[in-house]
Amino acid sequence: MESDHKYHAVIIPDEFSGYSTCDFRLSQRYSKYIEGILVPRGMILDRLEKMALDILDNLERRGSTSLTLLCILKGAFKFAADLCEKLEAAAFSRQKNITIHLDFIVANTYVNDRVGHETRLSMCSDPGKYENKDLLVVEDLVDTGTTLHKLYSYLKALNPRSIEVACLLVKRRQDCVSFYPDYVGFEVPDRFIVGYSIDYSDHFRELPHICVVNDQGKKQFAVRE
Q1: Annotation says 134 is catalytic
Q2: Residue 80 has pLDDT above 80, yes or no
Q3: CATH of domain 26-56+64-221
Q4: DSSP helix/strand/coil, 50
């Protein structure tokens, strides 16, 4: 958000309906509930390698020797784990002595396929340790941006050395709160997305690809209110 560089994202156009589920490995349990595959796993991992290099470039420019990744659970867990691995590999290949730490935050605004009005945050460790640290918030998906906006304000009050935000996906929406991450993997159409640790009512999380749920899937796995 407060950054001296401009991020780049891979753009998935609105007219792209997704790859066929017949062309990729997919769990039989979920295949009939998937409208299409927006981003295959291999493309995700390739994009993460480039994001890791961009993050390291900015760390080096600031003279940083450590970075704390704050993973927003549960949806960003897979993204954070893979990004951490790519960061460590890139730092090693460059012979850079940069220590990578991983910490967690629980946040939730969704009820079924709707974004709720109240964002609940719960820190998994002492927030006082973030003072004068370089922080990278790791989020799976920017929908309305309310979660990140609230979290960014909270973290800024802890007086870290820097705060940046890395998001795997940003949806194109008209009702966002104008929160712009520093690093973005893919900009995607405004559809209901699952897979690669992103869930719908605690289902679909284990899918390896980023997929779109069809109407049948939304109905089948909706939480009964």
Answers
A1: no
A2: yes
A3: 3.40.50.2020
A4: helix
